[in-house]
User: Fold these one by one.
Assistant:
Number 1:
Amino acid sequence: MIPLFKVHAPKNIGAKLQEVFDSGFLTEGVYSDKFEKSLCEYLGNDNVCLVNSCTSALLLACHLSDVKPGDEVITTAMTCMATNEPFYNAGAKLVFADIDPTTGNIDPEDIKRKITDKTKAIVVVHWAGQPVDLEEINNLAKQKGIKVIEDAAHALGAEYHDKKIGNHSDFVCFSFQAIKHLTTADGGALVCKSQQDAERVRKIRWYGLDRKYAERTGRSRWEQDIIESGFKLHMNNLNAAIGLEQMKSIDFIVNSHIKNGRYYDQHINNEKVVKLCRPSDGSSYWIYSILVEDREHFQQYMRDNKIASDVVHIRNDRYTVFKEFQRDDLPNLDYFSTRLTNIPVGWWLSVDEKRYIVDIINKY
């Protein structure tokens, strides 16, 4: 079976993890500092803050956006449930906007229709690594004094207007979970537009303590005051050491996804299979989504031919936990979610496997 996902494992990772254990410092420290700096350089933004998951990044973005009970957050349901649960847990009202059925991304026009005086934030997801229309959404948000939060779990390495995702909105949340472009086993990062927000995050991700206090002042860290209650959401040295090793291959990983995705764009030609549109050439192709009328039949056909396929995420407005926010004005989401499936596109595909997948799909 050609897998839909595969974990990228650096060959010397065991020795690196042993190195961390031998150092005696397992929690946040030298390795996480180096990994954070490496990500700053890769993204072109100094305000990268490592955390223990993308969900934690979203929680912190929610917190820094001052989302309170009763506030409204406009978001998409075509995503992992982890995108919306931090806002739900903060007591916000989730206002689901429709999507563009040709991309899977949230529709800026429907966002406009659903903004009210209670709207505190707009949450966007770069479906499959294809950036949303950030210029239109950020311009709209700026006019209304609303924060924009990007869930970029699919989009490490993607670009919008010649800049990597991670440079456009108030807050951008990345995932380093097992099957993402870059994995640290589990982990994430919150990227802030402002240095002030980043400095705040680096404190509240660890109870409100400034981990660099002793280094900056020459005094004991325990002499500092805590002025804002925080959390325990930092990344540890073990996960960071994995991340540092993965960064050595990040260009290979992302570029392989892009190369394979563009090959599919060019060579899949079957009127029964609808490919997504690419409004820009900046997709990182974390997954390759297609739309088919009879999904179960198609997926069985793929299994019969030893190719994995899956929906990956289901619309999460149908979960009971979000029942109070369900609505009937999402026709594009209805269309997209019932036809969606994904095929292997990652770095692990050989040239022959890639050609084989195209051949099987074109014969469907």
Number 2:
Amino acid sequence: MKAGEVTEGRFSEYFEKKFSKTFNLDHKKCVLLNSGTSALTLAYRLMNLKKDDEVISSPMTCPATNEPLFNSNVKVKFADIDKFTGNLNLENVKKLINKKTKAIIVVHWGGQPMDLDGLKKIIKNKDIKIIEDAAHALGAKFNKKYIGNHSDFVCFSFQAIKHMTTGDGGMLVCKKLKDANLARKLRWFGISRNYIGNKWKQDIKVSGYKFHLNNLASIIGIEQLKTIKDKIRVHKFNGEYLDRNIKNKKIKLIKRLRNSQSAYWIYSILVDNKQKFKKFINEKGIRCDEVSFRNDKYSIFKKYKVSPLPGTDYFDKHMVNIPVGWWINKKQIQYITKKINEYR
């Protein structure tokens, strides 16, 4: 504040570097932005999607995943999800692929990575990009590598309720350096901020946005990175404790892939009667709610609505979330588990 460095600058660049180092990413391919939605918007823009192009996506996600596609006037094809993971059903994805398919949008539900190997096998030898909406999956791993290292574009969120926050913010990770370089220009009106002299004298050859993250938010991010691995470790401890110790025939747990490590951003369970369970668990002093409602119920996506989506129907009907975050201590997670097991 004393230096007058309020907008994007050296602290934003430092945060970008620290983030990439923390999660074993290539700094040159990481682009810091003002939201996860901006990261998704840029990923779609970098693909040069056209009006008749088709993109396969999940209906079970925050609208931020799909609204930038709607705004681009491309056709969204909602794939069904696996009713026991919340992630894309690969068999259904396979059926939806055609010559117009340009991309598949992956959402790692609750921080549990989907089968990226299986997805890549389906699109092998096809010119189809994979874009990961990794808003839930900061610190998650697939094949022993952090999420962010596997696909054409990966989008992280630093929104208020994520593992770490800058108030709002996001990061786009690109597989190709040329995409990252273009994204840096697009995030600030199509202008390079590294230009020596009056930046506005540059020629603008491509129209961009105002998607940069300012220094104030970046400093918050720098401080958050000092403890983020410890916080994620607590999420994982609590999530794995619940995985091992919930023993109730009326409750089904999310399935975990052996070659993955969930970030446990939220802990979803599948219950026999959602309203009955929520009433029971709330009376025990435990928060229980839903997050991200199926997008195909919103009016703007009516033209993309398809049926049947049995996995989505089941997940939507039975899924609720219970506390799992870094603020939950060992005694509390034991209490939560005990009360869940008492549900009848």
Number 3:
Amino acid sequence: MRLEGNFYTIHAITTGNPGEYTISAELFADHPIYKGHFPEQPVVPGVCTLTVIRECLAKIVGREVTFTAIKECKYLSALIPQSNIPITINITIADDSQLCATVVNGNSSQSVLKLRATIS
């Protein structure tokens, strides 16, 4: 199931140096997933954050991608859906399969996730 369009939207994808991308996106605070994760204190599920990264990668490379290995995945802070959450995803792709990504909460400028992975 694709999350783009019902869990989040992409506002822009920009490129810097070769292999470097910045994605400006917004997570929707009213998505029904928060009723179960967690009703009293909703938090963006980590797996959804990884799915957003994977879907953004698919747009960048022009094909579906999968994570074949996750070498590092550190959640540094929680995303709390009190209102729609602007996020910035910074992705660096090396050798067409190695990537580093960070997710930053646009409301606080706080890093949320650091990822090093291999894709196919």
Number 4:
Amino acid sequence: MEITDVRVERIEVPLDRPLGVSRDRSMSARGAAFVVVETDDGITGIGEGVGPESYIIERIVEEKYAPLLIGEDPLDIERHWAAMVTDTVYKDRKGQGLSAASGVDIALWDVAGKHHGVPVYRLLGGPMEGSLKPYASDLFWQDPATMAERADSYVDRGFAGVKTHLGRGIDADEERVAAMRDAIGPDTALMVDMNCGYDRPEARRVGRMLEDYGVYWYEEPMTPSDVDGLAALREELSVPIASGENEYTKWGFHDLFEADAVDYAMPDVMRCGGITEAKKICALAETYNTVCTPHCFTTGVGLAATMHVMAASPACEWLEFDPTEFEVYEPLFETPPGIEDGRIALPEEPGLGVHLDEDVIGEYRV
């Protein structure tokens, strides 16, 4: 079997409701870059790389990585990962080059699963269990009453945890945390994501406030560049620290673990180096007795890739799940995931269990 083509399909989905995060920032659209790998056996693999600029992912994949891959055996996944990431003279240690390689890697694993006729998690050694525990990840910045109502609605749908995005000052943050905690009660996990919104002093003050509300984890309180500051914050606070969505490769996560900077490690499969590298990061987390809860706020392709990695790792907990009716989320699954008894079943189809529905992709193609 040989690779005959490697290309990228880009989409952009405008949002009816902007997604507000820390420091008055917001997103009015969500884009995606799907990597498509074709083979002479008629098997097509689908992956996704998170940029954030999808056009850069497209350029890197089609001009840098495709020439390395066309004519090669798609099942030599480790060798292709090395060719993209470590065998070059000038290395992309972090950033868009790794994101592009992640999308290619995911697509190659999809090809491998389809070739062998099994779900990808079977090739990774899983599953540990037949389902995953999700938390709802959609509580972006709005007025406190609206956020509390939305949080409560997700609990009603069966989610055991909800995550909110704050980071606009301690008073405004506390007003929303208090409203959400009152709405969902003391037994539902409330995760708080600051999207790198604070400096060290303010992160400390806000963290102490979050302790009073029994927050489950305190995510990306500061810039990911300040690993020492994150470690110091973790030492000072009782609320657990979560971080890693802006980190890359096992080497980057090794630095986080060595610094004792995180309680919950959050590799993004679409950024950190794909399924190949995410599996290794999970194993590394296990050696440091650190929980892995991968970051995943993307399309159905990225969700599927994340589910397969988590299913094969004993270090993993909590699947990040978008509970909204995002047009390119559940419709890309062969069997759309649903919550039953607070769990989401794993895909059973060969490969990732996803497809690029032409009607859906065509509507948002860039």
